[in-house]
Structures are given as structure tokens and as C-alpha cells.
Amino acid sequence: MKLLIPALVFSACLPAAFSQEQIIPKPAEITLLKGTPARLTPASAIVSTTHDKPFLNRARQLQQMLSKGTGLPLPLKTPQEAPKNGTCIIIKKDPSLASRGEEAYSIQSSPEGIILSAAHAKGIFYAGQSLIQMMPVIFHDKKADKSSVKWNISGTPFKMVDYPRFSWRALMVDEGRHFFGEKVIKQIIDQMALLKMNTLHWHLTDDAGWRIEIKKYPRLTSIGSKRRETEIGTWNSGKSDGKPHEGFYTQKQIRDIVQYAAQRNITIVPEIEMPGHASAASVAYPFLSLKSPAEVPTTFIVNTAFDPTSEKTYAFLSDVLDEVVALFPGKIIHIGGDEVRYDKQWKGVPEIEKFMKKNNMKSYADVQMYFTNRMSGIVAKKGRRMMGWNEIYGHDVNGDGGGKAGAKLDTNAVIHFWKGDTNLGKNAIRDGHEIVNSLHSSTYLDYSYGSIPLQKAYGFEPIFPGLEEQYHSKVKGLGAQLWTEWIATPERLHYQAFPRACAFAEVGWTPAGRKDFPDFKKRLKEYGERMDLMGIHYAKDIVDQIDKSDFFNTPRLGGWTPDSVADKKLSLDASKLIKSPGRYTITLLYEKGANAVEIESVALYEGNREIARDTHPGKSGTQKENIRYILNVPAVKDGATYTVKAKLSGSGGDDSYGTVYGELP
Ligand code: ACM
To answer: Whose CA is nearest to atom 1 of ligand 1?
Structure first.
């Protein structure tokens, strides 16, 4: 026993395990080589072999990031000034990577140097994000003394070439319902950067709040960004927090955040909702709607639509978008377009009925189509391209009596598919549209982990089943959405988003054939440690959850049934598993049945002789506690029989079935 103590102390002092291909999202191509890994030391430097200004900017950024995380100076040097006695990070421009897109990069890492290559400066940023994830997690600890950390890059030398599967890898944050502010959004941007997500879809206006300063219309924020109180719990709960909620981003803040995001390869796509979800704006300027409410709604059911028959509406929206495009340099402007309450907002309203008659429109969907195509023209005149939720395609997917539009949507519009039959999405593509796939039942991060478990998120496939190959490139990618009706705090926001956003990052980046959920879950453990240190309140219970998928490649020794539980013992042949000395992990995983099992101990027998034992209480039911047992096998005998014996009992009954897995760690 005494002998063990120094060993334990020693392992506690080591930096976290060195990363072996730990990166999320999993890189497209990586080869781990044999030998000692590259290590950054106080003698290391960053050496740029190009004078290209964007590359030099990225080199400077890398210097700042890595120096902050490691505490090493890592000065920026020219090749002539490169130190001879330290492993350097060498930045190279390599036009041959352009065929993989502007986000592609390669890394060659060996003790002689760490070469980061890219055709475009964006690739250098992503190479840096991968390097960070290959370093010990203590990198992210702002308080630790790092002077004795060994800054190994991965556990071995390696070569990788990495590039994304999709060009649109988005996270949407709804700040209309709840305003979080600059610190929270920058923290999300940092996570997105590390996960190589490149699009922040920023939902800035909704019924319950307008969050972007518009100089020409100050009431949008002086009135529209405040509400008296907020409904809590769920839809129609009848309960309220009784507290005012308010907040908006000034244009100065937005410019700063846009720049912050751009430095991290992220384009912000602003969403200004129209014609529905417009209560806050209509309260501020009642001429905007035929049914403006008296106050900014305090529940999330109210859904006001702009007046599509009035020229004043278009003039207002055009003015607003003038200021929006001046703030957001990205090509795409999202106009929402979802959930117009035709039945409550337009049906039977004299101005609307008259307008329809005059323009020979048969359905309310046609009225929205008229509105949307006008907005598409307005957006195009400002040099941008319109995007909207799939209602803009003219089908009443919400069943609000809109009917189907007769007129066609401007084909330049990007359709954000979230609801309805996937045939709608496929037909929109065949009609010439580009699509972003955000199917609600798979990608809504406000949904519980029960309805969208991590594995379902990970398994999301943005290309619609049955879509002809020639149209695959029309699917720009995917979005994951954080709607915030019932998310009022940053902690809850983090919990709902992470780790599912990590899964969506991998869906968007990693070649489909390289995806592997059990492997992802293993990598997530370490990523979780990183998130902890970065102040992200992710769903630890989900990351720690042990489930069958974790044992995809793990040898199965056998299982238990109610009979073995009644017997209070289980005996399984392990002769095929125990072939060499080592530290074996035996996991008792509950599968089904009314009761959990309580585990007392797991032992290993060589013939009749006990050679290893782990005694600790474990419980394996729908909740799992300490169900891994470690057996240290000092030596093995050829031809011997090995048996794993567990002592267990039923928890309140014997109805339990489970599987026992054994593995060398
Ligand atoms: C949406 O969830 N209403 C796009």
C-alpha cells in the first residue's frame, strides 16, 4: 500500500493526459507518427515565412493566444531571426490548399518544428485552434502556475490536412426573448471559434424585445427593448417573474462584436424579424402594424405582424436595414419570415382583404410572398442577399390558414429549413434555392436533452435523404438554434448549448465517413475540462453519462439477468480478454428492467486463485454511479482460465438486465 502513495502523488502532478487526436471537430485527415512530440519551450518562437499582411496579422494573433495560454513568450520572428535552440511554429502560405476552401490548413508537427500552412489567413487561425486543443487542458486555466508544464503538442509527431465539409456552420442565439449582453455573446463566440463554427446567427428582434440600436428610430430601443415582466416556466404557464427585463446593443458595441467575431473567422448574420414576431417594433411605432399591442408583450405567445399593405412599412424596414448593413459586413441578411399568425393578424382585417382583392391574391401566403419578394429586392439593392425561415417559400407549415402561395419566391433567397416535410426542402433546392438545414426536431438547442439527446444531435445529417447528388452542394450547411423563451440566464444558455453545439460543430466540419459517436464522446471528456476552465456551464451530466454507444468497440464478457441478480453473483469467462498484464476496466452497464443493481465488488480469478479485486459500491440502473471496476493484472499465464466474478444485488427487486464489458484502457 505504501508503495502506491508516491505513484499517486506523481500522477496528480502531471499535466492532463496529452492529447492524441483529441480535437473537436475531428480533423479531415490526420496521421499520428511515432516518436517524441513537438514541445513549446521558453526558447520557442513563431516564425512567419510570408510577408502577406493577413498572414502576419494571424501570426500576431496566434502569438497573443498561445502566449496567454502557455505563459511562454513565443516572440514573432522572421526566418533569419529564428532561434536555433527551440521548436518553432512556422507559418507558411501554401496556395495548393486553396482547392479545399479558404478555411483549410495543414499542420506538420515534429520536434524540429510545427509547420502551419494555409492558402488563406483564415486557415492559420484554425490551425491555431487545433494546436490549442492538442495541448494540455491547463492552457485554459487563467490562474494556474504553468511554469513547469510541458507544452507538448499532442503525444506524438503528426501530419494533418483539415478542411470543412460545409461552408455554413452556424449557432443561432435568440436575444430577442432574453438579452444576455456583450460578455456572454463574446464567450459564445470564443467557443464557436474553438469548434470552428463560422456563422453566428444573431436573432436580434422579436415580439418580446428589440435589441439593436437604430439611430433613425430611437423608440425601437427606448420602448421596444423593455418589458414589464416575463412569463416563466412554459407556454401559457400563467406565471410571471414580476421583474422588468431590458437591454439592447448600441451600434458601437455591435461594431466591436462584429470585429471580435471576424478575428475568429466568424461572420455574424443578423436576423431582423419580419413580417411576424414584430410586437416590440409595433409598440414603439404603432403605424407598423394593423394590430399593434399596447405594450411590449410579457408572454411569448403574442405575435404581431407588420402591415404588408402600407408603403410606410417598407420605408421603415428599408431605413432599418440601411443601418443594419452598415454594421454587418456579411453578405447575408436574415429576415425571419416565420410564423406569421395569418389567422389572428391578417384574416378578416379590411385593409388586408382589400389589398388581396386589388392584387388578385388568393391566400395570405401570397400576401407574405408579396412582402418577402419586395424585401428581397430591398435587401438586394443594398448589395446583400436575403435569407429567411422556410415559411418564406410560401407553404403554410404552421397551419395558420395561410394556404399556399401562387407566386414564386425570388430564387436568390436562401431558405432556412426548420419545419415541415423534407420534400419542401428538396423542392426548394430543385427550384434553385440554397438551403441551410436547421430542422427543429434535430437542431433546436432549447429542446431538452430528452427530445434531442447528444447522439441524435451528433447523428444529424444536413443533406436531405433522397436529395439527388447534383444538388448536394446547394445545402450550405446547418444551424443549431438557441431559442431563449425559457432560457433566462447564461448558465442555462450554456447548459442547453453545450455539449450539443460540439456535436453540431462536428456535423458541419468532419467528413461524414469519419464521424464516430463513441470516439466523439471520448474526446468530449477532455473538451469538457476545457469548457470548465473557460467558464462554460455545460451539461456535465450529459458528458458523464455512460451509455451503450460508449462501448461500441469494447469486448463484451457477457451479461446479467434477474436470475443472476437473485443469485447475488455473476461469473463470466474472461480468458479471451486477459492476454497480457495491465490495468483492465470492467464496466457493468444496466440495459433494462424495473430495478437497478447494487454492485459490491468485481474480482478476477486465474483458475481458482483470486489475482485482482476492486471493491467499491456501484449502482447500475437508469442512473449509473461508479460502474467501472479496475483490475490490475500483474502477470498472465499461458493457457490459464480467467474468470471475472462480481458480487451484486437488486435494488428493491431483481428485475434487471445488463451487459458487462471488459477492456484494457
Ligand atoms: C422558428 O422556430 N420559429 C423558426
So the answer is: 338
Ligand 1 center–CA 641 separation, angstroms = 60
Q: How far apart are CA 473 and CA 458, in angstroms?
A: 21
Q: Decide the pairing of beta strands 475-482 and 435-437.
A: parallel
pLDDT band at 614; cut points 50, 70, 90: very high
How far apart are the CA of 418 and the centre of ligand 1, in A?
7
How many Cα atoms are found within 13 Å in the side-chain-facing hemisphere of 392? 30
Kind and range of the H or E run holding 270: strand 267-274
Grouping H, G, I as helix, E, B as strand and the rest as coil, residue 74 is coil
Instruction: Tell me the C-alpha to C-alpha distance, in Å, between residue 47 and each of 58, 63, 106, 160, 594.
Output: 12, 10, 16, 19, 62
Catalytic residue among 206, 273, 396, 434: 206
User: How far is residue 187's CA from residue 156's CA, in Å, rounded to a whole number?
Assistant: 31
The per-residue b/e assignment along 266-289, b for 16 or more CB within 10 angstroms, e otherwise, is bbbbbbbbbbbbbbbbbbbbeebb
Which atom of ligand 1 sits closest to the CA of residue 438? 4
Burial class of residue 646 (count of CB atoms within 10 Å of its CB; 0-12, 13-18, 19+): buried
The dihedral sign for the CA sequence 26, 27, 33, 38: negative
Atom of ligand 1 nearest to the CA of 277: 3
Nearest-angstrom CA–CA distance, 558 and 632: 20
pLDDT digits over 9-20, tens only? Answer: 333 323 333 445
Helix, strand, coil shares of the chain, percent, nearest 5, are 35, 25, 40
pLDDT in tens, 452-494: 999 999 999 999 999 999 999 999 999 999 999 999 999 999 9
Do residues 244 and 227 make contact, with C-beta atoms less than 8 angstroms apart? yes
Verify whether residue 178 is a known catalytic residue.
no
Residue 171 DSSP label: E
Query: Cell numbers 437508469 correspond to what residue?
Result: 622
Beta bridge pairs of residue 647: 569, 601
pLDDT-based confidence at residue 665 (cuts at 50, 70, 90): low
Expressed in angstroms and rounded, the spacing between residue 45 Cα and the centre of ligand 1 is 48
Bigger pLDDT: 14 vs 47: 47
Q: Are 319 and 248 in contact (CB under 8 A)?
A: no
Q: Which three cell numbers mark 270?
A: 443578423
The sign one gets for the Cα dihedral 183, 184, 188, 194 is positive
